[in-house]
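Thanks for the sequence, V.! I ran 3-methyl-2-oxobutanoate dehydrogenase (2-methylpropanoyl-transferring) right away. Repeating your input here for the record:
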Amino acid sequence: MSFLTITKHLARCATRILKRNVFSSGQMPSKLTRAQMATFTYVPDTAPSEYGETMKMNLFQSITNAMEIALESDPTAIIFGEDVAFGGVFRCTVGLKDKFGKDRVFNTPLSEQGIVAFGIGAATTGATAIAEIQFADYIFPAFDQALFAHVAGLKIVIPRGPIQAKGLLLSCIKDRNPCIFFEPKILYRSSVEEVPTGAYEIPLSKAEVIVEGNDITMVGWGTQVHVLREVATLAEDRLNVSCDVIDLRTILPWDKDTVVQSVQKTGRLLVAHEAPVTGGFAAEIASEIQAECFLHLEAPIERPFFLSLVTLISSGFIGIIYHLSFVRSKISLSSISFSPLSFLKMTSFAVVTSASFEYPTCSCFVFIINSNYICLFTNSHCRVFPITVQALLFI
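Predicted structure:
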């Protein structure tokens, strides 16, 4: 097998791991548990001994601990956001108001523009402002649809686990530049590590090589790091290919030197990100490395990705692809002909459903893609839940 083929094979492996619980054996189970919806195997880190004593924490506990240290060590530090005083929807600020008072830990109105504007104003007057945006989806009104990575001076950080989260968050809080700290929701409780109890900082804009190899470089951040670890294990076991796995940790400004050094050694690069291929940050990395390492590359740079899908309905709706066998098990489609002509005549149909948990009722719009896949758009979050069909209405 040529190394060009191996690079493409690893890209396919990464994509399959991303999708394995959704398209396992071409079918979907009738019910997916929260654990089954995880798309990677979490690998805990070990803290360096110089960080001191440790305590078992998950991601949200390590974030809480980091903010507690920041409030204790910096009298100008304040934390604010929607429901922050109550502990936050993910409990990341639980207990902080009771310990530090309502003047330093407080709620804000439901206005992301207001939260960000207040943070900017507080910072310009000398305060250390820690503004929480409840969900990443809510940030858009605060920056008028501009892309984070296009804003000079911002620092964007994404941790892969609790140890990293605490050290990187403390570095963000002490940094005098505005930092955006993304917290992977799936890791809040699923990731557990022995986290140092004292204060420590992990340098921003410094990547970490977490698996060393000689044949291919694989770069990711956040949860994708764990996907790449699995791919590296598969490559070693099945292909006898050793991989360099790099966690960027900070994606703006990103550590180009570490990636360049690795690619000059391996001659190959794969970049994984949780985004469509068009306009994703992996393209920026690929462009930079192609220019810097042109004479060292022995194969094209690969970017495993999900398909770029067109959203055909109003904003606020999210597209999900289900395998047809799953839908057939939930919806009686025997009367529907799946010939290409029928797709042209029947552009869409609506399914009124009743979810078994969390959402008493919700509406789904179903668009047929081909005989194997259909696309479901729902006004709920991107969740897979058991569906009991009450009616099938053709539009």
